[in-house]
DNA sequence: ATAATAGTGTCTCTCAGACATTATGGC
DNA sequence: GCCATAATGTCTGAGAGACACTATTAT
């Protein structure tokens, strides 16, 4: 979109052989205290029987964000989720059928949204994520069924999933993404559980509390959790600072 | 790339109206001790007379990375630069001619590469960047000509430029991007100058030295800078840790 | 010797980890 | 009163900012 030659090339829509653009969504939530993704089993070739991220093609008159939101709605039945662009995958042989460039989005689901998507008859299945590396080192991620069996992933979706986990870990302590996985009211222990699940490592309780409260993101509701057989914890709410 | 309907849609290349995919490069380097970008003045409409990032359309048989490298070569005459994907811009009205989705790349140039691109007859002009926000707050960025006059940017390129600066600032202290702007051998003072230019704020000398040396990224060469009228500083080299 | 910057020693402050202790609600 | 967990106080060590001081080279 800069030189004259390209201007002319680009100006006549039929004069240029175009590729196909898609969006793929990494739907992440918590399942049984550990990080999990929602996947679809592919019925048709290529990669039939393997597991794929829900995705869809981007319409000619559709903004990228809108395409991602549409996939979230149509494939997972959800209208509310933290959605952010992750990375664009543009290798030649991602899909054996044709050239498809895909913009990957990270979608973070609250426990309720996660359950809703699973129950919605969408065919989505929860896969817990096995992350064998610590910190932000990066590396492969294994998706496992409830029983523990590895789920082979279609296309380059293992790579996309791994990048999603890396991004999530990286943003966790300086951004608000941690709250996207929690309900509106939550205890500090729940917040810590979320962080520990994402980081894959235990955290120090007093230090965690101090850090979170000092951030100014939390406002106490005065309410307390119910149903415990011991001292109930205070419920907090996320509040965007100022 | 997931459901059956989309599979069929996507399988016949002529059955689907395709958009155009481009790459745009944010070429950043240092000019006169401050952060600067290389821009091209648009000759034709739309946005004639405004300033644009160098870019190009992505070929149907061309990986995204290769397209970025091609633009770097053809538009700036460079074969060596730190190149990393920044973000994909996919709004509907980015370009008034037609729907163009653009994958933005961040290219970091050493002082030598920066000068080479300027001298290569490519038409690129150095614009110093005026960043009116501190830290990683984010916000608009103004490109200015050598005299200080603001250069109006074409399309959504002001937004892309701002995101590039934000990304660079964010990655500076935990990644190796700072070294991409330096020659192979450099002094600690030069490294600090680079960091200060990117952050737009002065840094504490002893603390900066300690941090950098403790990272394990630097290896002393035993050589010293030449041409000073005072004590010459030791020259270091960047060495990927282990 | 002087000038000018390279390079270091040290104090302090902040902040996180570790651990122990106190507080509190349900039974 | 007992239990289990919430919530907090305090010690310690790592690391950064501030500032002063020493080292070294060209002239």
From TrEMBL, chains A, B:
<feature type="domain" description="NrtR DNA-binding winged helix">
    <location>
        <begin position="178"/>
        <end position="238"/>
    </location>
</feature>
<dbReference type="Pfam" id="PF00293">
    <property type="entry name" value="NUDIX"/>
</dbReference>
<dbReference type="InterPro" id="IPR015797">
    <property type="entry name" value="NUDIX_hydrolase-like_dom_sf"/>
</dbReference>
<dbReference type="InterPro" id="IPR036388">
    <property type="entry name" value="WH-like_DNA-bd_sf"/>
</dbReference>
<protein>
    <recommendedName>
        <fullName>NUDIX hydrolase</fullName>
    </recommendedName>
</protein>
<dbReference type="Pfam" id="PF21906">
    <property type="entry name" value="WHD_NrtR"/>
</dbReference>
<dbReference type="InterPro" id="IPR054105">
    <property type="entry name" value="WHD_NrtR"/>
</dbReference>
<dbReference type="InterPro" id="IPR036390">
    <property type="entry name" value="WH_DNA-bd_sf"/>
</dbReference>
<dbReference type="InterPro" id="IPR000086">
    <property type="entry name" value="NUDIX_hydrolase_dom"/>
</dbReference>
<feature type="domain" description="Nudix hydrolase">
    <location>
        <begin position="21"/>
        <end position="111"/>
    </location>
</feature>
């Amino acid at each position: 979109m800069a030189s004259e030659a390209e201007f002319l090339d680009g100006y006549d829509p039929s004069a240029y052989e175009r590729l196909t653009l898609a969006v793929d969504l990494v739907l992440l939530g918590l399942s049984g205290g550990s990080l999990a993704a929602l996947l679809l089993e592919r019925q048709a070739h290529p990669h039939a029987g393997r597991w794929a991220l829900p995705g869809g093609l981007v319409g000619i008159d559709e903004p990228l964000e809108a395409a991602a939101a549409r996939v979230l709605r149509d494939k997972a039945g959800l209208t509310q989720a933290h959605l952010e662009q992750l990375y664009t995958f543009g290798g030649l042989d991602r899909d054996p059928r044709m050239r498809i460039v895909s913009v990957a989005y990270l979608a973070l689901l609250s426990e309720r949204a996660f359950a809703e998507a699973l129950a919605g008859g969408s065919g989505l299945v929860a896969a817990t994520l096995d992350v064998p590396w610590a910190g932000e080192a990066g590396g492969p991620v294994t998706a496992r069924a409830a029983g523990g069996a590895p789920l082979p992933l279609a296309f380059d979706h293992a790579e996309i999933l791994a990048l999603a986990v890396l991004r999530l870990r990286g943003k966790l302590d300086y951004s608000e993404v941690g709250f996207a996985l929690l309900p509106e009211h939550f205890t500090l222990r729940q917040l810590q559980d979320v962080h520990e699940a994402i980081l894959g490592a235990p955290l120090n309780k007093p230090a965690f509390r101090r850090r979170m409260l000092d951030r100014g993101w939390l406002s106490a509701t005065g309410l307390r959790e119910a149903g415990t057989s011991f001292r109930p914890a205070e419920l907090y709410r996320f509040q965007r600072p100022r």
